[in-house]
Design goal:
The complex is a heterodimer of chains A (362) and B (58). Chain A is α/β, with parallel strands linked by helices and 362 residues long. Chain A contains nine helices and 25 strands. Helices cover 21% and strands 44% of the residues of chain A. Chain A has a 15-stranded mixed sheet that branches. A ten-stranded mixed sheet of chain A has the order 2-1-5-8-11-13-16-19-22-25. In chain A, helix 3 crosses helix 4 and helix 7 packs antiparallel against helix 9. The longest helix of chain A has 18 residues. Chain A is globular and about 65 Å long. Helix content of chain B is 84%, strand content 0%. Chain B is built from three helices and no strands. In chain B, helix 1 runs antiparallel to helix 2. The chains are: A alpha/beta (362), B mainly alpha (58). At the A-B interface, helix 3 and helix 5 of A face helix 1, helix 2 and helix 3 of B.
C-alpha cells in the first residue's frame, strides 16, 4: 500500500482501508477488532459472492434502477466499489477509507458502494478520488447507497480530485430511519464536469441530515450540484451548506432540491450557499427547488456572494504577504466554519489541494 | 433507431460477459440487464452517441 501513496502510519490509525484501480478493488483490509465485532468491509464483488442474501436485501433499494441514466449505467456495468456492514450497536471510532484511481485516459469507472449501518451503530467513511492528467476524457459514474437504521449515525466524506479531463457523474443517496443521522461531507476540486446531487431520504421520525460541500472551480470546470432532501418522517431536520470558490472561467450551478411531504409534521430544513468569486469571468447560478406539502414544516434558504477586491490584496501585501498566500488566507477564512467539525484528515487534504489549485489558477 | 438497437446489443454483450466473468448470482445479472434497458430508455440519442466511445473502453 505504501507504493500506492498510503503512508504506513495512516494505515495503522484507520479502521479499514480499500484501494480501487480502474475497475477492480485491488486491496481491502479491516482491523481485526472490527472483524471480531462482525463488521464486514470488502469489495462489492466479493460481498456478492460471500454474502449474497445480505447484499441482495439492500442493493438498489436507495438508488432505484430508473433513478437516472447515469445510475442506470452504473447498475448495468458496475465493477468494484465497496461493501460496508456495521452490526447493531457497534460504533467504529476509526476512519474507514477507500481510494479510487483512474490511471488511463478514455476509461470508464463504475464503482458501486453499499453501506449498511444497523441500529445504533456508528461509522465514518471517507473516499478519495484521484487521476493523473490526461489529454482525453474519462468517465466516472459511481453510485453510493447508504442505509442508516434506527438510531445509527453515518458520516460519509468524499474528497474528489479527478484530473480536469474526467466527467464525474455520481449518484449518491441515503435512507435514514427513526432517530438516525447521515452526514455528507463533499469536497470537489477536480474533474471537467461534475454532476452530483446526494439524496437524504428522511423516512424515520426525528431523522437528521447534514450536508456540507466545498468546491473549487477553475478555468473550464463546470459543476451542477446540490443536495436532495425528502422529509417524510415527523420532526425531521436537514442542514444543507455549500461553499464554492469560483475562479475565472469556472461555472457553478447550485440547486438544492427540497421536498417536504404531508406526513412530515414539524420538519425543518435549512439551506445555505456561499460563493467566493475570483475574477470577472467566474460564473455561478443558484436555483433552489422547494416542494412544501405540510403547513407545520419550516424551511429557510440563504445565500451570499464574496468577491476578492484588489484593496484587500494590497492591504495584505503591505503586511508582507504575497498574492498566493493572501488568497490562501482569504480562502481558509471562507472555509473556517467547516474546520470546527471536519476531521483533521479532511482538513489536511483540502489545504494541500487548495494550495495546488491556487498555484495553478493565480 | 437502428444505431441505438445495435448499441444496446453490444452493451448487453458486455454486461453478460462481465456478469459471467464475475460468476454472479442470477439476480445480479437480471438487475444489470434491467438497468441497461433503463439506461437506453432514459437516454436521448444525442446522449448515447456521446458516451458510446467511452463505454466501449470499459
Amino acid at each position: 500500500m505504501a507504493s500506492m501513496g498510503v503512508p504506513e502510519e495512516d494505515m495503522l490509525r484507520l479502521g479499514g482501508i480499500g484501494l480501487q484501480e480502474e475497475s477492480e478493488m485491488v486491496y481491502d483490509s479491516l482491523g481485526k477488532k472490527w472483524q471480531k465485532e462482525g463488521v464486514i468491509f470488502t469489495s462489492i464483488d466479493k460481498a456478492i459472492q460471500k454474502y449474497p442474501k445480505l447484499v441482495q436485501k439492500y442493493l438498489g433499494t436507495v438508488i432505484a434502477v430508473n433513478n437516472n441514466k447515469f445510475s442506470a449505467l452504473n447498475t448495468a456495468l458496475f465493477s468494484g466499489g465497496s461493501f460496508l456492514y456495521i452490526p447493531s450497536g457497534i460504533k467504529i471510532d476509526e476512519l474507514i477509507q477507500v481510494l479510487y484511481r483512474i490511471n488511463r485516459e478514455e476509461f470508464g469507472q463504475f464503482e458501486r458502494t453499499l453501506i449498511v449501518a444497523e441500529q445504533n451503530s456508528q461509522v465514518s467513511y471517507l473516499e478519495g478520488c484521484t487521476a493523473p492528467m490526461f489529454t482525453r476524457g474519462s468517465l466516472h459514474a459511481g453510485v453510493v447507497e447508504i442505509i442508516v437504521k434506527e438510531g445509527a449515525k453515518v458520516r460519509y466524506g468524499a474528497v474528489q480530485n479527478w484530473s480536469k479531463e474526467v466527467y464525474n457523474l455520481a449518484t449518491k443517496g441515503a435512507r435514514v430511519l427513526k432517530d438516525g443521522q447521515i452526514e455528507w461531507m463533499d469536497a470537489n476540486f477536480g474533474s471537467k464536469l461534475t454532476v452530483k446531487y446526494p439524496l437524504s431520504d428522511l423516512v424515520g421520525d426525528n431523522s437528521r441530515a447534514v450536508y456540507q460541500s466545498i468546491n473549487s472551480l477553475t478555468q473550464g470546470q463546470i459543476q451542477y450540484s446540490g443536495a436532495k432532501v425528502i422529509h417524510s418522517g415527523k420532526n425531521t431536520l436537514a442542514n444543507i451548506n455549500s461553499k464554492s470558490l469560483i475562479f475565472d472561467g469556472g461555472y457553478s450551478h447550485w440547486q438544492p432540491f427540497l421536498q417536504i411531504q404531508n406526513t412530515a409534521d414539524s420538519a425543518s430544513n435549512f439551506s445555505r450557499c456561499d460563493n467566493m468569486l475570483f475574477g470577472d469571468k467566474a460564473t455561478y447560478v443558484t436555483e433552489p427547488i422547494t416542494e412544501l406539502n405540510n403547513a407545520n414544516a419550516k424551511t429557510e434558504i440563504e445565500g451570499s456572494l464574496f468577491k476578492v477586491e484588489e484593496d484587500t490584496l494590497n492591504y495584505l501585501a503591505t503586511r508582507g504577504i504575497n498574492t498566493e498566500e493572501a488568497y490562501l488566507i482569504l480562502i481558509l477564512s471562507f472555509y473556517e466554519p467547516l474546520s470546527h467539525w471536519l476531521p483533521a484528515d479532511y482538513l489536511l487534504e483540502i489545504k494541500q489541494l487548495l494550495a495546488m489549485t491556487l498555484s495553478n489558477a493565480i | 433507431m437502428e444505431e441505438d438497437k445495435q448499441f444496446y446489443k453490444q452493451l448487453k454483450k458486455i454486461v453478460l460477459t462481465l456478469s459471467s466473468q464475475k460468476k454472479e448470482p442470477f439476480w445480479v445479472k437480471e438487475m444489470r440487464l434491467a438497468a441497461l434497458k433503463q439506461f437506453i430508455d432514459l437516454s436521448l440519442p444525442s446522449f448515447l452517441s456521446l458516451w458510446r466511445k467511452l463505454i466501449y473502453t470499459t
